[in-house]
Amino acid sequence: MSKNMLAMLVASVCAFGAMTASAAGLSDNMKTLNANLQIVEKTDDAAALKTALTDMRAAAQSAREELPAKLKGKAADSAEVKDYHHGYDVLTGQIDEALKLTEEGKIPEAKAMAEQFKATRGEYHKKYR
């Protein structure tokens, strides 16, 4: 498959993911984040990278509005819920930085941000998964 066809396929799959992220549940958003993280790690195509990062951002923002089972019943202003939201704020900031790098043409640097995404995921999964 040519690189252009692959990039178009990735972009169309990611676009569909972005359309459904706002209506998705927490589990679906986690799947969207993971699938697009894999794209970020593998692609060298700026357009595909930007699409994957944009879809990750949408899924992170949508997931922020859902609470995991560990936090069900907790007050919205509880320390745990605030920390959970902070995790998504951190992730969104990291994604925004990667998007900025992508727009500047710094593809290797943007891809390297995936390690930060994984560290944030690991930290907050330990607490709330």
TrEMBL record:
Organism domain of life: Bacteria
SUPFAM superfamilies named in the record: Cytochromes
The entry's keywords: Coiled coil, Heme, Iron, Metal-binding, Signal
Keyword Coiled coil found: yes
Textual note on the cofactor: Binds 1 heme b (iron(II)-protoporphyrin IX) group per molecule.
Needed co-factor(s): heme b
Heme in keyword set: yes
Any Gene Ontology biological process: electron transport chain
Coiled-coil annotated spans: 23-66
Any one GO CC term of the record: periplasmic space
One Pfam family linked to the record: Cytochrom_B562
Signal peptide as annotated in the record: 1-23
Residue sites binding heme b per the record: 30, 125
GO molecular function: electron transfer activity; heme binding; iron ion binding
Family designation: Belongs to the cytochrome b562 family.
Record protein name field: Soluble cytochrome b562
Lineage summary: Bacteria, Pseudomonadati, Pseudomonadota, Gammaproteobacteria, Enterobacterales
